[in-house]
Amino acid sequence: MAASTKLTASQEDYLEAIFHISEKKMAARAKDISKYLDVRASSVTTALRNLGKMELINYAPYDLITLTKKGQQVAKEIVKRHNALERFLVHVLGVAPEEADVAACKMEHSIPKEIVERLIKYSEYVETCPKGGITWESGFGYYCKNECPDQSCEHHAVHFSDKKS
Fold this sequence. Notes:
By secondary structure, the protein is mainly alpha-helical. It is built from seven helices and four strands. The model is unreliable at 154-165 (pLDDT under 50).
């Protein structure tokens, strides 16, 4: 796949589905993917042909589908973005897990990698602040229940000092 080739959201969903199915079954079948994504078999066939042409999957009609090495790398990155966004939504914003999963799936296709990395750092800060007690309350935003001023939190300095000029 050329560096300039950008996957569509749908293609990313197929790679993610193949990745998750393959984790459980070692490989995927078209019917597994159809069920996982709740799409028609004809849609799956078209998507698989395209992903095969991009050399992201090993595909032959009526055969098992596996990710190529390149496809594995791309799929892992998609899953990483999804998990990071879902974690941020649940642990930082207090969104219900089911709602967070659906939202993360929509967001993962459009948020640049740099922003996802910042969300991860912020999640880590919220979860590891040595003063603890950072929470989202009644829509008023974050505050530290232990009155942790910015300067006293060593994690704050580490995670937020990398602002781009």
